[in-house]
Amino acid sequence: MANKINRRSFIKTAAIAGAGMALIPNKALADKKKPSPTETKVRIAFIGVGLRGRNHVSNISKNPDVEIVAFADISADAVAEAQKIIKADGRAKAEEFTLGPTDYLRLLKKPNIDGVLIATPWEWHARMGVDTMKAGKYAGLEVSAATTLEQCWDLVNTYEATGVPCMILENVCYGRQELAMLNMVKKGVFGEIVHARCGYLHDLRGIKFNNGVEFGPKASSEAQWRTNFSEKMNADVYPTHGLGPIAVALDINRGNRFLSISSVATKARGLHEYIVENPQGGQNHPNADIKWNLGDVVTSTIKTSRGETIIVTHDTNVPRPYSLGFKLQGTNGLIEFDGLESGGIKQEDGTIVSPDRIYIEGKTEPHEWESAAKWFKEYDHPLWAKFEAEAKNTGHGGIDFFVDKEFVDAIKEKREPELDVYDAAAWSSVTPLSEMSIEENGEPQFFPDFTRGKWMNRKPIEIN
Amino acid sequence: MANKINRRSFIKTAAIAGAGMALIPNKALADKKKPSPTETKVRIAFIGVGLRGRNHVSNISKNPDVEIVAFADISADAVAEAQKIIKADGRAKAEEFTLGPTDYLRLLKKPNIDGVLIATPWEWHARMGVDTMKAGKYAGLEVSAATTLEQCWDLVNTYEATGVPCMILENVCYGRQELAMLNMVKKGVFGEIVHARCGYLHDLRGIKFNNGVEFGPKASSEAQWRTNFSEKMNADVYPTHGLGPIAVALDINRGNRFLSISSVATKARGLHEYIVENPQGGQNHPNADIKWNLGDVVTSTIKTSRGETIIVTHDTNVPRPYSLGFKLQGTNGLIEFDGLESGGIKQEDGTIVSPDRIYIEGKTEPHEWESAAKWFKEYDHPLWAKFEAEAKNTGHGGIDFFVDKEFVDAIKEKREPELDVYDAAAWSSVTPLSEMSIEENGEPQFFPDFTRGKWMNRKPIEIN
User: Fold this and answer.
1) Is the pLDDT of residue A138 over 70?
2) pTM score
3) Which CATH number goes with the domain that contains B351?
4) Are residues A153 and A258 in the same domain?
5) pLDDT score for A240
6) A441–B370: do the CB atoms touch at under 8 Å?
7) What would you measure as the largest C-alpha separation in chain A, in angstroms?
8) Cβ separation of B442 and A441 shorter than 8 Å?
9) Inter-chain contact A355–B357, Cβ cutoff 8 Å?
10) Do residues B165 and B239 share a domain?
């Protein structure tokens, strides 16, 4: 009941805000809502401090330039855990907002906040991002940033109306191998890029069911909400971990753009089998009757205005080792790697060998792959060389350090983040576009140009 | 001039044959054109004895069950080379047909031929196959079997009208690793198959230009005709090496069928760069002005009636090591390998490690790839165990031995070949269908059902 009341009042608030926006000239609103100046500390608040949100709390708490001022979450327990993290770092207690799913709106009214990091269920990211920008605070959105095309536009339109930046917190863009790949692209190692592959290939069956067979209200953490997308949607519901680094390497929204996408899905078998074969489940468990909508493997083919193609895979329902399935190919050669320094291939003698491989004409031996290890080292990105020690202690092998640092630095330096609202919209739009294409048997869908033509003259991202 | 006259007279002949067919009831024609009985030897003729045709001559010449009776080729030199091969094996000289491109029709009139192996430029395969079946002789067609949908139908319709079998000589279907994969599928290792990948990823720039920059009449061997397809067509012009083994594993035309395909092509850069950067070429060479039609990487996505998806890649214009890019994924796990026992990855210490990898839930260690080597051994196909010694001496690591043996055995045993006319049509139709899809920006195209409904009840291929 509390939820219902809060949701209703939220909608009312949002409607008023929307009506108000229409009356205020954009420029005036932009001036009014500019991020508040910070003297010394960047004041960060968090909406969503579940497992993922607390990763960010933990990283950002180590940053001496930051003051952590508030937490919002529907779970008071989660907030208590977050408080413990910052207390252990010698920080003062943050203000708490735990009165239901729209209590974050109260948080956003606080004047002592410069940026808000949002790590909530996917369907909440965009609306919270919009509200955050409207409140004049930098928005940092976990991935994906949106699940519908309207949400993508909401983010872009709000950014353009308010002038308040919005960053998509795509941590894989800061992976050591991924940044080395970017470095190689910029230095022309591959020649002119023609083709790329990437994806999110991760056996999530355990996560979708807390290693049992339950999800939704009976479950905890991601199984509470993420699994719902497997039941209800047939789409690439999680495209950005693979696509982000490739989009950066291909200058998407900056001289290049996603043009069209065609997507197909396989039959859905994996989750049903998992429930049936799980000791806690079985053929007679009620969840064995669920008709899962999400195909076990979803493959999308994107064409870009510069003439490259990108194959994006979503593969989370069947057993497999983790991979982001990277491949980048140009007129000089190509690289293939699993990404994020994934595991290797176990040999018969027990040794583990990396599958990462590269071929560069005239640099590697003809007709033979070479281990990519040496190349990753040679083209190590300056950012990693500089911050290796700090990064190594943080989440996901260091990438969370860099993405959180960039969010904080952008606020501190009062500039656009490296990964901006147009990236958030274009990358996230793969979810609704792939859904439409799958429903139409692979019919190509055109990407909206979220930049409204600005992509032609925007400069490539400089990650540094 | 000779060519022109011959082509005209060929068309006339073909038209008469076609008119005749309409007057004869199918059953009567089938009876009349049944393969002639063989007492002891299978009598084989060859149309096309260039480099590839002579591989077949060489293999088949080692088969004591075979009599080699005739060679047709536009090049008398090529025929002379073929004669040398069989002479060295102690065989009598074969009859020669070298009076231009349609002289093979004279060959087909000879009564002392049971089967004809056709290894000519792609655009000739189907019409020669049709003429061979009409002449009552088993047709063995090099890949692809056809380049247009009409040709695919011509093959099927002629087979159904004459009752004379037609085999697509897809040698990779007999690869040791590929047959081990099939064995694993049949034994349920992967569970229910949901997804597959394959392709033809082979840097053909040297072959397309004889390592220089010329092609067509000024060039030799494949550069005489193959390169023409790169100039004129934007399609997966060579789909069957990857797709054949996957189609066999997925029971295509036998309980399953290709339903639809969506294809995209990247920009075409590789061949132009190759010409410009070649010492024999350069920016001012006339061939530097050619606008190549074939995209450097062509990616097709096929949906099957059983709900699997197959990603097929054609990648021949840019530098890279050879690969057939196999991946087969089911509800129990997956395998990834380059195919045909391709090369490995060179490590920093100089050792070469195979990239072939497998993951099977409960059989391999959690979250970790295992080298596929052990699995290939454990599931080695009985055919390879039996004929390893004979096979190893023949082309392409042994696969040519098996495909040629199957062609001869089918004739000897008066039965359908394992890879039949419906396979030839379905696999080869990827070329015209991908061309249409690319031209329509990835619009899905529907596969014709070449079996006219028979796929629902046909039994899976037994390779043995």
Assistant:
1) yes
2) 0.91
3) 3.30.360.10
4) no
5) 98
6) no
7) 72
8) no
9) yes
10) no
Q: Which of B297, B319, B360 sits opposite A361 (nearest CB)?
A: B319
Amino acid at position B185, single letter: V
Give how far B304 is from chain A: nearest CA, Å: 9
Please list, in sequence order, all residues whose beta carbon lies within 8 angstroms of the beta carbon of residue A398, skipping any fewer than 6 positions away: A174, A176, A384, A388, A391, A392
Average confidence (pLDDT) over A439-448: 97
**∠B41-B42-B47 over CA atoms, to 5°?**
140
Asked if the model's pLDDT at residue B4 lies above 80, the reply is no
B241, B429 in Cβ contact below 8 A? no
What does the DSSP assignment read for A428-464? Answer: HTHHHHHHHHHHTTT--EEPP-TTTTGGGTPPPP---
Q: ∠B381-B385-B389 over CA atoms, to 5°? A: 135
Q: Which of A303, A319, A329 sits opposite B318 (nearest CB)?
A: A329
**Looking at chain B, which residue has its C-alpha nearest residue A350?**
B370
Q: Which of A347, A360, A365 is the closest to B371 by Cβ?
A: A347
ipTM for this prediction: 0.90
Q: Do B267 and A343 touch (CB under 8 A)?
A: no
Residue B211, Ramachandran bin (φ over 0: left; ψ between -120 and 50: alpha; else beta): left
Contact A371 B347 (CB under 8 A): yes
- Of B297, B307, B315, nearest to A266 by CB-CB distance is B307
Contacts of B374 in chain A (CB under 8 A): 348
Of A143, A170, A197, the position where a domain reaches its end is A170
Inspect the interface and report whether the beta carbons of A195 and B309 lie closer than 8 Å.
no
* Closest-CA distance of chain B to residue A257, Å: 14
The H or E element spanning position A132 is helix A122-134
- The answer to whether position A373 is within a domain reads yes
Amino acid, res. B158: T
Residue to test with chain A: of B189, B204, B267, B370, most A Cβ within 10 A = B267
Show the 3-state SS of B322-387: CECCEEEEECCEEEEECCCCCCCEECCCCCEECCCEEEECCCCCCCCEEECHHHHHHCCCHHHHHH
Please identify which residue in the block is written with the tokens 């064409």. A303
Between CA A208 and CA A223 the distance in angstroms is 5
* Residues forming beta bridges with residue A302, ordered by sequence position: A261, A310
Best to test chain A binding among B250, B304, B331, B445 (most A CBs inside 10 Å): B331
pLDDT band with cut points at 50, 70 and 90 for residue B151: very high
Residues A264 and A126 reside in one and the same domain:
no
Q: What residues in B contact A303, CB-CB < 8 Å?
A: 264, 441-442
What mean pLDDT value characterizes chain B?
91
Task: Answer positive or negative: Cα dihedral of A348, A354, A356, A361.
Answer: negative
Q: Report chain A's mean pLDDT, rounded to a whole number.
A: 91
- Residue A282 and residue A137 share a domain: no
